[in-house]
Amino acid sequence: MSGTRTLVSPATLARPRGKALYWAVFTAVVLLFALAFLFPVYWMVTGAMKSPDEVARTPPTLVPEHWRLGGYTDAWDLMQLPQHLWNTLVQAAGAWAFQLVFCTAAAYALSRLRPAFGKVILGGILATLMVPTQALVVPKYLTVADLPLVHTSLLNDPLGIWLPAVANAFNLYLLKRFFDQLPKDVLEAAEIDGAGKLRILWSVVLPMSRPVLGVVSIFALVAVWQDFLWPLMVFSDTDKQPISVALVQLSQNIQLTVLIAAMVIASIPMVALFLVFQRHIIAGISAGSTKG
Amino acid sequence: MTKTASRPPLEAAAARPAPARTPSPASGAGRRRRLGDQARAYAFLLGGLLCFALFSWYPAIRAVVIAFQKYTPGSSPEWVGTENFTRVLHDPEFGAAWRNTLTFTGLALLIGFAVPFLLALVLNELRHAKAFFRVAVYLPVMIPPVVSALLWKWFYDPGTGLANETLRFLHLPTSNWSNGADTALVSLVLVATWANMGGTVLIYLAALQSIPGELYEAAELDGANLLQRVRHVTIPQTRFVILMLMLLQIIATMQVFTEPFVITGGGPENATVTVLYLIYKYAFLYNDFGGACALSVMLLVLLGLFSALYLRLTRTDGEEA
Lengths: 292, 321
Description:
The complex is a heterodimer.
Chain A: H1 10-14, H2 16-47, H3 52-55, H4 70-78, H5 81-112, H6 118-127, H7 137-145, H8 159-166, H9 169-180, H10 184-192, H11 197-208, H12 210-226, H13 229-234, H14 243-251, H15 256-291
Helix pairs in contact in A: 4-15, 5-8, 5-9, 5-12, 9-12, 10-11, 12-15, 14-15
Chain B: H1 3-15, H2 28-66, E1 69-70, E2 78-79, H3 83-89, H4 92-125, H5 130-142, H6 145-155, H7 162-169, H8 184-209, H9 213-221, H10 226-253, H11 258-264, H12 275-284, H13 289-314
Antiparallel strand pairs in B: 1-2
Keywords (chain B): Cell membrane, Membrane, Transmembrane, Transmembrane helix, Transport
Protein name (chain B): Sugar ABC transporter permease
Membrane topology (chain B): Multi-pass membrane protein
């Protein structure tokens, strides 16, 4: 922790003036962070507890006069939050499961089974990294609305989220690179023991790949939970919309305190996920910088 | 080659003076086995491959095709040449959308580069409460973008919003924020920066931590002051990461949609219509999928250039494909 040398030398910091300056800067940064990043969140959580009259008051109250939970219960009932949260959960969980199964299998095949044209396929997959996803939403929408050959529509169907989520070159490449680095002798030993490919994937490769599976899982869940434009296009049916779309659609004609409460509720799952896994998530992002 | 299958040719080869290493006729069993291996490999690949084909490769081709067609879902498309492009180019919103998107990207780069880099620089010097700083700065990233947008829409309310209340508290003139034609775009950049800065700060921090301390010591021995050390040690050492993040940010911000859609609805007076928003409007408001695809192709070409640059710069480990 303190052993590493940074911009300011330890000698400077040890001097009384250096120490005073350090603590001054430290306090300033703590205050700045609290104001910039925590205060807006505090404002949202407490705003939902104010009465409609209090939330519109000038100057505003820093602390609600009465800590009422009515905003939250109203949002839960009036905005059909259980329904939309459930939709989001189903969409995210399905996208996660489909990605884990199909991306893992494909990455394993590309990494270990040497399929014919494997390099061409990998090249085609990596090329999609160059094509920003959002720029292709309209033709993607038309494809989902009328699947080629089978001519079925996946609109208003969670499959419209699940299947396109599999086409995630970033996660697939992450998995493939990890599988490439697994020790060869262990896999060969399993093969000599007569284990089939599926068996090897299930009982040898996957248990060794826990770290990368964790990262891919978090990416997959967060991506679906946070997405807005794609579910906005796929779900025109209000009852099937995930919470992000529903919030925007309902924000027009609902009381401010109720809307704010709904916003807080919509944020809880991802913020909770972050607080539980913060060390892994932060370590994963930091590692991303050096390993690309 | 299994041992049993290759035994007879091997014995024959041993009798001959020159050892023929290539087995003469590929034995039937070996070929069948190889075919079986391929079938198995493709069974594993199939699901993923189908999804990529349907939802990545096919739409990319289709964007280009539909850009030259009059396309309405349900009826058969007609070829119209470059008509979609000329129509889109003559749309007064076209110029506004590109101008706004490029301004947004430029401002986001300016604010979104300078602020996180300075924050990371300061954070790297602090030896206490490290976990607090990292969690606090990343917290907005985990809040759904729609919630951030709605939250700031409320803050930007000219009457009772937090932004103007703060200005009044400090006895400063109030602003129209996202409701004023000349301040709307900047207001959106602030939201995007607030919401996305966490990841950038964490990556810069990791890059700063990988700078060898001896470099600073040597610079100090040479009499370099703080600013000189930043200029001659910190920035050159993190140049690669800075460049990477800049490119990624350009690619991400040029596709901005949620903030203008939720906060301003493209207004006031088209001040915040972005290219992606215009694509959305063409498809879902005007029902003009040809025009939407023509716009998509333009955005695709521009972003593809940036992406190619990014991939070229990151592919340092020289892997396949």
